[in-house]
Amino acid sequence: MSMFYRSTRDDSVKVTASQAILKGLAADGGLFVPESIPSLDKSLEELSKMNYKEVAYEVMKLMLDDFTEEELKSCIDRAYDSKFDTEEMTPLVKVENEYFLELFHGATIAFKDMALSILPHLLTTSAKKNNVKNEIVILTATSGDTGKAALAGFANVPGTKIIVFYPKNGVSPIQEKQMVTQKGDNTYVIGIKGNFDDAQTGVKNIFSDKELEKVMNDAGFQFSSANSINIGRLVPQIVYYVYAYAKLLANGEIKDGEKINVVVPTGNFGNILAAFYAKNMGLPINKFICASNENKVLYDFFTTGEYDRNREFVLTTSPSMDILISSNLERLIYRIAGNNAAKNAELMASLKSEGKYKITDDMKAQLADFYGNYATEAEDAATIKKIYEDCGYVIDTHTSVAATVYDKYRKETGDTTKTVIASTASPYKFTRSVMNAIDSKYDSMGDFELVDELSKISNVKVPNAIEEIRTAPVLHDTVCDSDKMCDEVKKILGI
Ligand SMILES: *Cc1c(COP(=O)(O)O)cnc(C)c1O
């Protein structure tokens, strides 16, 4: 074992991968980052002959090097199984000149499944390795997608319970139905009277309640988080970039060593950071094209070098990207500050107090591989319609942000490098927005009517995740006031 993780805010912190997974966030509020990023020890040629699980092992063994081969392979086997509706896990679909990397073939038809189907196993293995005897209680506040993906990932995983809070009137009907029909004896879903921020604040308060922590410990429980800043979510996301490259090579679409571009529809900056780590591990990537919706904080940051969250929050049709604080960007900031925790901590303190910070010219110069742009709501809808009409391929609203921004990049730069677009959700997850973009006549149809219509026009079978909820019984119907969340947790745990 030779790899350790450091905190982005305190140089004295040094933990193993499994400890970083267990902790999620460093005690100083910083994020865990690998001390140095290991290089792939298999050639691209060798990787091109492997299946998804084999590539996953080759990538993850380097980043999580305190896991034994047996432990890691067992986690991978349990994660990437028949929960996915294709053996390939992440099919690469060529549409005109681009390659859409479909990351939505898991249990909840969004890319979060790629990480959340393995995180529970990484977490329980980490607990065992570190002699944690308590049962792990995952506590999550969700605005929709993460909650369901976490529920699906943790359902029936021995040694865990998962409790999800969502704003009762703040998620889409399909999202709510997906959550309240969740099976599994260890799953709990609670609607709160309040918005997402109330749910989030409630969860944070429960996490930081020292007295509760003690009572929990005495009863044999401890909290953990499935939050996207956990390296147990970041590391599995590196895999599909390596796999996509390997597939392009295997299919003769690129030559060994040829650079590719990747386009990522971005919110919290986790997915695109994983691509950046893939490049650091040796994957030939030219540009990271960071695509934002109208919440274009990142576009402004890449353009000006100033990150400024002081602006109006826009509700868009790509809600999973409606974010003004891209938490994972901190890992990149730390890196371009020369792995300087003090400098990074200063910028993050400024973000907290002023809502903004500015990086130096030196730091900005290190962002040359990144290109940022954004898509307006109208552009997003127009791209969905255009790709459907030209090619018969239907993409979701988030993927369309990426496709729109890629189009702008292409026109601006004339760069013809082969390009992979991360396709982060199935169009079935956002059926109404997608169908409205294609034709306004769909406006009057009911949710499931639209689902059938989408299947007709796209020639894609309705995914299980949607079929299931048509008739699934509601199993969770608890609703509570936002200041009663802690009581609900205690009730569930019997403490
Ligand atoms: C979470 C999510 C994103 C944003 O990913 P980040 O890693 O937060 O940048 C994009 N699209 C979909 C569908 C998502 O669920």
Number of helices: 22
- Contiguous low-pLDDT stretches (5 residues minimum) are none
Strand content: 15-25%
Total strands? 16
Proportion of helical residues: 40-55%
- Report the sheet with the most strands, covering strand number, pairing sense and barrel closure: 6 strands, mixed
| Mean of all residue-level pLDDT scores | 95
Bound molecules: pyridoxal-5'-phosphate
Q: Any idea what the radius of gyration is?
A: 22 Å
Strand order, biggest sheet? 4-5-15-10-11-14
SS-derived structural category? alpha/beta
Describe the global form.
Answer: globular
Task: Give the distance, in angstroms, between the N- and C-terminal Cα atoms.
Answer: 39 Å
Domain Threonine synthase N-terminal: 5-80
Protein name: Threonine synthase
Family: Belongs to the threonine synthase family.
Keywords: Lyase, Pyridoxal phosphate
What does this structure look like?
This protein has helices at residues 17-23, 44-47, 52-63, 69-79, 112-116, 119-129, 145-154, 173-180, 196-207, 210-219, 231-250, 270-280, 297-304, 329-336, 341-354, 361-365, 377-391, 397-413, 431-438, 447-458, 464-471, 485-493; strands spanning 5-7, 14-15, 32-34, 92-95, 98-102, 135-141, 160-167, 187-193, 221-224, 260-265, 285-292, 306-308, 356-358, 370-374, 419-423, 478-481. The chain has a six-stranded mixed β-sheet with strand order 4-5-15-10-11-14, with helices on both faces. The protein has a five-stranded parallel β-sheet with strand order 9-6-7-8-16, sandwiched between helices. Strands 2-1-3 form a three-stranded antiparallel β-sheet. It has a domain at 92-110 and 232-462: Rossmann fold, CATH 3.40.50.1100. The protein starts with a strand and ends with a helix. By secondary structure, it is α/β, with parallel strands linked by helices. The model has no long low-confidence stretch (mean pLDDT 95). Helix content is 45%, strand content 16%. A hairpin with a 6-residue loop joins strand 1 and strand 2. The relative contact order is 0.14. The structure holds pyridoxal-5'-phosphate (PLP). The site of pyridoxal-5'-phosphate (PLP) has 17 residues, from helix 12. Pyridoxal-5'-phosphate (PLP) binds next to helix 12.
